[in-house]
Amino acid sequence: MALSKRMLFIFQAMVCLCSFSLSQGNQQFSLRNLPTLQKASSFPAMRHETYDYIVVGGGTAGCPLAATLSLKYKVLLLERGGSPYGNRNVSYMENFHIGLSNMAPDSASQAFISTDGVINARARVLGGGTCINAGFYSRASSNFIQEVGWDEDLVNESFPWVEDKIVQWPKIAPWQAALRDGLLQAGVSPFNGYTYDHVSGTKVGGTIFDETGYRHTAADLLAAGDPNNLRVLLHASVNRIVFNSQRGQLKPRATGVQFTDENGGLHQAFLNSNCDSEIIVSAGAIGSPQLLLLSGIGPKNDLRSHKIPIVLHNKYVGKGMADNPMNSIFIPTKSPPRQSLIETVGITEAGVFIEASSGFGQSPESIHCHHGIMSAEIGQLSTIPPKERSLEKAQKYANTKLNLPKEIFHGGFILEKIDGPLSTGHLALIDTDVKKNPAVTFNYFSHPQDLTRCVYGIKTIERILKTNRFSELSANTDGHSMERVLNMSVQANVNLIPKHTNDTESLEQFCRDTVITIWHYHGGCHVGKVVDQQHRVLGVSGVRVVDGSTFSRSPGTNPQATVMMMGRYFGVMILRGRLGRAAGV
């Protein structure tokens, strides 16, 4: 019996859905398939073509999202920063700290200081945070996936999609091997080997650095898209989302975006008339709530104070900001350890993660004496109380650091950071310039449980230092007392002048006064308050948010794996939903 036309259409759509999900893992992946990266000024000033999707932010989530959507639809990806390719400060581990410390207006990293006084950074480059982070790759826990309500089968398809393209196993560095052994001897067990999974105990995770120290980023994932459907503009700073609020409409509908190019020229890009077309904001935990506010979505009184026309009052935009606090212990060694970032992690039952970094780069461009991930060059001024920190102090110290004795840099760090966290703050506009940082407050350790966890982490490090493995590495044959290494940690990063050496009398005070960041901030666009379960912005149509701003806690030990997976996940989810609606199923 012949199929009706409707049944035939449904059958064809379902075949398309199945072939989409099955074929993507088998396609040959090559960076030769990257789309052309164009300057924003190349975009015509006059309106010409329209798009099915406009993705704001070519970062950790935005790149895999845009690549996936481009397989079926026309996509415009707008990135405020430049290209990571050809930038040695992005591409090579040995220059990690230089990339983060670069204060130039077009650098890959944009520094900001939270109102708490902690120096931080946000990415300003295609590939986002994957271009400036420590490279560690570890998935979210299964509990996290269940809590956010994602489809576990699709999650388990999306993680390998990322991993097959840019993730590798590290050739474990000596300092990382020492941490592995020390964790196990200190009781952080079992050893789970090399794994991407989030499991209690000690493990070695993946890395986006290859064996030569070259970094592979989320930007590489654009090569998995269709270059004929994907247009990428660099140095495109989106000022606002444009809405059509005609009378009779139930909700304001997004129609496009307004952005400026590298020369300050103003442009507009528009969606096509299809009701499924969307603006997808993937500008990160700072940029996404900031853009919603600049577009008129947020607390009405705050919007009025900046003379921003109100599109929708939502008191939750910018609220619930959080950053995982980190504290570090400097361990002097007999000889300078080889450079390493994060490769090994101890995942404790108490909700504390233990990691490590060591050494410094030796490239011609590199600063030859710094403390790796804990370097003052990147603003990790843990010796100065938070309220006294400034970018100027970081820069001043970087300029005079070469005068310090080289022995000061013989050692590595063991880091503790807490899961969650439970302490939260908020984000608010300072002005209406999207290129400037908003005011961000994280309220580190305002929740007592966070402080309790920090103390537990410091005590765990103390147990590690007492193990045979670290006694063998110690510059002192008798090892180091905890009081001594705490004092050294208070002094090491900035200079040899004691600042708060009595911090060692109270581990709680040590935690408060030496708190720094590992750049895992999140929140500001929470599910159920700013976006729905599908990440569509509540109260308007045609806008989604897909990035870490939707998280109420940071996933896993390090979020980049989950955020890249998230971009792929929502891209596939959107495609399947759209094809399903077209088929009437």
From TrEMBL:
Give every Glucose-methanol-choline oxidoreductase N-terminal domain span: 123-146, 284-298
Kindly list the cofactors needed. Answer: FAD
Q: Where is the signal peptide?
A: 1-25
Q: Which cysteines are joined by disulfide bonds?
A: 454-511
Q: Which Gene3D superfamilies match?
A: 3.30.410.40, FAD/NAD(P)-binding domain
MF term (GO), any: flavin adenine dinucleotide binding
Record key words, sorted: Disulfide bond, FAD, Flavoprotein, Signal
Q: Any idea which positions bind FAD?
A: 79-80, 125, 238, 519-520, 548, 559-560
PANTHER family linked to this entry: OS09G0363900 PROTEIN, OSJNBA0019K04.7 PROTEIN
Which protein family is it in?
A: Belongs to the GMC oxidoreductase family.
Q: What is this protein called?
A: Glucose-methanol-choline oxidoreductase N-terminal domain-containing protein
Q: State the species of origin.
A: Oryza barthii
